[in-house]
Amino acid sequence: MTNYYKFIDEDKNLVGVECDMTLSDFEPKNEYPWLFWVYVQLRHESVDGAINPEEIAIVEELQEQFSIEMKLSDLGVYVGSRLSDGWLEIYFYNRHNKGVEKKCAQVMKAFGDYAYETASKRDKDWAFYTKTLYPNIYMQQQIQSRDIIEALIDEEDDLSVVRKVEHYTFFQTLASRERFATLFEKEGYEILGDVEDEGDYMYGLVVSKEHAVDAQTVETTCAFLIENTLLEHGIYEGWSTTLAEDTPVDNEDS
After folding, report:
1. Cβ atoms 180, 171 nearer than 8 A
2. Confidence (pLDDT) at 102
3. Integer Rg of the chain from CA
4. What span, in angstroms and rounded, lies between the C-alpha atoms of 119 and 126?
5. DSSP code string of 149-206
6. Are strands 2-8 and 14-20 parallel, antiparallel or unpaired?
7. DSSP string of 43-69?
């Protein structure tokens, strides 16, 4: 199963990334020590970090054909892709790098005159997958938030409506939780209560604030919470809310 996220790189380019996160536990990685990639120059500009709708069908078919070819030849494992600056980058980890470029040419032959480049390098520790493709804690939250937002959209919710949103954090010490609570109360958050849990992060805290739940607002809010949770060596577990129509209306607005 692949997950999608996006970010702005150092060159101010919007980068869309697809990563098979399930492969973090894949064994045995050492049997696939060669990182192989294909760069395909697309014909249409991306839309908000995603493949242009006019080209998405052919790109999905291209990725699928590469995956099939690698599996049939028992050569490699598809780990993810990146979309940036008009190029689609497709990544595999292979058993070896012999004959891979030939198989790539066979696949690309079916897709007309798309310009493409291939290369490979030894990466027995899967460093590229871990450090470049796999989402960091902020991007993992972006993925989780998108799932919630899509569920709200399915219910025809108005994401711009401000409503109460609960956020969940956990800490290793009581002192860390208390410092976090003090800070976020000053930031205008309501402290809803403590949560006791098992394991290393025993001291949970639920806070809430009223805000919209569009993607940009949520990402900015979550990033602030994550940053400050990390400063206390804690973990941010995400957020939840209700549909806008379930949000009580202030009497002054009735």
Report:
1. yes
2. 87
3. 22
4. 16
5. HHHHHHTT--TTS-EEEEEEEEESSHHHHHHHHHHHHHTT-EEEEEEE-SSS--EEEE
6. antiparallel
7. SS--BTTB--TTTHHHHHHHHHHHHHH
What does the mean pLDDT of the chain come to? 91
Q: Return the domain boundaries, the chain.
A: 2-133, 137-253
Going by DSSP bridges, is the β-strand pair 235-241/2-8 parallel, antiparallel, or unpaired? unpaired
Tokens 């973090």 correspond to: 24
Quick check: 7 and 139 in contact, CB under 8 A?
yes
pTM tops 0.85, yes or no = yes
Average pLDDT over residues 130-150: 96
Is the Cβ–Cβ distance between 236 and 169 less than 8 Å? yes
Q: 196, 205, 199: which is closest to 237 by C-alpha?
A: 205
Question: What span, in angstroms and rounded, lies between the C-alpha atoms of 30 and 174?
Answer: 42
Summarised one tens digit per residue, pLDDT across range 205-239 is 999 999 999 999 999 999 999 999 999 999 999 99
What is the edge-to-edge ordering of all strands in the sheet holding 163-171?
190-196, 203-211, 163-171, 235-241
CATH topology of domain 2-133: Alpha-Beta Plaits (3.30.70)
Question: For residue range 63-96, what is the model confidence (pLDDT) as tens digits?
Answer: 888 888 888 777 889 999 999 888 999 999 999 8
* Fold classified for 137-253: Alpha-Beta Plaits (3.30.70)
**pLDDT (tens digit per residue) in 41-65:** 999 888 877 788 989 898 889 888 8
DSSP 249: P
